[in-house]
Write a structure and sequence with these properties.
It is a single chain. The protein is built from 31 helices and 5 strands. It has a domain of about 240 residues: Rossmann fold (3-Layer(aba) Sandwich), CATH 3.40.50. By secondary structure, it is mainly alpha-helical.
Length: about 625
């Protein structure tokens, strides 16, 4: 074709480019088709049209255009890149990788090709190679926003939250008006349990993209975790720009209402979420957990059918089968309920394995042995007088599902006590201290004072008028050495329960993915055993005032035990502590339904319903399968 005859095509192509710049994509498609009607092998028009077709999710037509072009332009990185993208849209992932790899080989400094190959590798589950490809793209173009965001998102998926946050912060600097960058910052902060900062990032994202649901969901979740469920609901109510068919909005609304004890409204919200997205498993599980009526055969059959759907993700199937297990137990179908719990945990464990999460029992024992060897009476005696003398901090610790939420709720019934829920601060401060200063033997007095002062400032911010602020994170039991150095006048309540009941309760509940031991009955039992070993160590070594509460005794002799708790906290008796189920506050733990019911004892001895299934557990924890349910009162210090 002569240069003269190319001139009209060039003019039309420039019109197509102008249309794209003005986001008039329909006109751009028309101009490209006009060019191809005059010159069927016009490469620039073919590439532009293929990209426009991919925007319309028409991968089939894009591939139809690009495959012939790739045969005549087999050495063109741009053509191979476009065809690789089209193959990915079709789900032809191996072919997509091959084309993108060929594009990179021909043009090694092609950041977009590395980025898109990283996306395909991610689709294929090769997270290591995907990470490397995103990093290569960024090395070639440090201001490549999409690659930064992709890397941050993948790092979040891999639980590398600090690095994900670093990438998102750089993305914000590159594009301060990118709602996605601020959203990813918020997600990384939320996963790190830095909830206040997470809310700030998500509010910025909302201001930049008020019609996107995800920042509302994330900010509301963080507010709820901070004990501000009412504020979370108000934020959701303000999401008027978000389409009301957002299932996630309704799901998180249900979570907030449940945390506040408004169970009827929570059930309606969960049902709305299910209606909008029937494949999302978590609303089913949450809904079943707050229903007291027996499930119908139709409801059970529906969950069984969903559980068998191989098209659902393991995460959704896990939540659905947990819901099925709870339904079956309520209907007294205990053998089937246990089978369902096993299946639910199997799905959950598969998700853990995909994220390289595994319970390292030998490592866990070794870590606890190091704590026992380090934090001795002599260690504390040589550091007497460290920290800040405040009686405000109270810590409830122990194995999960041993009554920690119930004890906190009892305490929260007192006018001088604020229940702060499960605060992540202690564990985070210990991790930071270990990174900066090394093992506990290297910790300095001024660091303890600084850490204690900062933590007390947070407690004052949570509840300025409270004499006692309760942190009920069970795993603080492993950080009581640090707590004793910071707060020599703090009080600690150890919660205990028959291990068979406690472990079964864990096994029947869906815990966060990072709770590595929760998906195995024996593993959870081993974790309980180590928790009890630490409790016994602290009984002898800890220089703090401590109280041991046995769940079964608390249930059987309630008023006496409640009075004992209030007396231990050195406060005047208030009868309102007995009406724990009437206390209005945000509760985020799995027990938030149970602790809003009047006292009941039906969960004591629950293990008997599953005695034929817990032989391995009993062997692991050293308890005879038919031993009487625990109930003795522990001896106080």
């Amino acid at each position: 074709m002569s240069k003269l005859s190319e001139a009209p095509l060039l003019a039309i192509f420039r019109q197509a480019q102008d249309a794209c710049r003005q986001q008039n994509f329909a006109d751009a498609v028309d101009r490209c088709r006009e060019i191809l009607s005059l010159s069927s092998n016009h490469a620039p028009a073919t590439l532009m049209l293929a990209e426009l077709l991919l925007r319309r999710d028409d991968a089939e037509q894009a591939v139809f255009l690009l495959e012939p072009l790739s045969k005549t332009h087999h050495s063109s990185p741009a053509v191979l890149f476009a065809l690789g993208n089209a193959y990915r849209s079709q789900g032809r992932l191996d072919e997509a990788v091959a084309k993108l790899a060929a594009a990179v080989k021909l043009q090694p400094n092609f950041p977009a090709a590395y980025n898109n190959r990283g996306l395909v590798k991610w689709d294929l589950g090769d997270l290591d190679e995907a990470t490397k490809d995103f990093e290569r793209a960024i090395a070639l173009d440090k201001n490549f926003l999409e690659a930064r965001l992709n890397l941050s998102s993948l790092l979040l998926r891999r639980r590398r939250y600090e690095t994900a946050l670093e990438e998102a912060i750089v993305a914000v600097k590159i594009a301060p008006c990118s709602a996605t960058a601020h959203h990813y910052c918020g997600i990384a902060l939320q996963r790190s349990r830095r909830y206040a900062e997470a809310v700030t990032s998500q509010l910025t994202a909302i201001s930049l993209a008020p019609s996107h649901a995800a920042p509302y969901v994330s900010a509301s979740f963080s507010l709820c975790q901070m004990g501000k469920a009412e504020s979370a609901l108000a934020l959701l109510d303000s999401a008027i720009a978000v389409p009301q068919d957002s299932a996630e909005i309704w799901h998180v609304r249900g979570m907030c209402l449940r945390a506040l004890g408004r169970f009827a409204a929570a059930a309606e919200a969960y049902q709305k979420a299910i209606a909008l997205n029937p494949d999302h498993g978590e609303p089913y599980r949450a809904l079943v957990s707050i229903q007291v009526t027996l499930a119908s055969e139709a409801e059970i059959a529906h969950l069984r059918e969903m559980a068998a759907d191989g098209q659902l993700s393991n995460e959704n199937r896990s939540a659905i089968v947990f819901a099925l297990a709870q339904m079956l137990e309520k209907n007294n179908c205990f053998d089937e309920a246990f089978e369902a719990a096993v299946a639910a945990n199997s799905f959950a464990r598969t998700n853990q394995e995909l994220c390289n999460i595994k319970f390292d029992y030998p490592g866990f024992v070794a870590k606890n042995s190091e704590i026992v060897e380090t934090f001795t009476p002599e260690f504390f005696a040589s550091r007497a007088g460290w920290g800040v003398s405040s009686e405000r901090p109270v810590f409830i610790v122990g194995f999960p599902r041993t009554g920690t939420t119930l004890v906190e709720q009892i305490c929260s019934g007192h006018s001088m006590i604020f229940g702060a829920g499960e605060l992540p601060d202690i564990g985070r401060r210990v991790r930071e201290l270990k990174r900066s200063d090394g093992p506990a033997s290297h910790w300095a007095r001024d660091k303890m004072t600084a850490a204690a002062t900062a933590h007390l400032a947070k407690l004052r911010g949570l509840a300025a008028g409270a004499s006692r602020v309760v942190d009920k994170l069970p795993d603080n039991i492993f950080d009581l050495g640090f707590i004793a150095l910071c707060f020599p006048k703090a009080r600690v309540i150890f919660c205990h329960r028959d291990p068979r009941d406690a472990v079964l309760s864990v096994f029947f509940n869906r815990f966060p993915k990072t709770t590595s031991y929760a998906t195995g009955l024996v593993e959870a039992g081993l974790y309980w055993r180590e928790t009890e070993r630490m409790a016994e160590h602290w009984r002898d070594a800890l220089p703090l005032t401590a109280l041991h509460v046995q769940y079964e005794t608390l249930v059987q002799d309630f008023e006496r035990e409640v009075r004992r708790i209030v007396h231990f906290l050195d406060l005047e008796w208030e009868p309102s502590c007995l009406d724990f189920h009437k206390v209005e506050r945000t509760i985020m733990t799995p027990s938030n339904w149970q602790v809003r019911q009047p006292l009941y004892s039906t969960s004591v001895g629950r293990w008997r319903k599953y005695r034929t299934h817990i032989g391995d557990l009993c062997h692991a924890i050293g308890v005879a399968p038919d031993a009487p349910t625990a109930g003795e009162v522990r001896t106080d210090r």
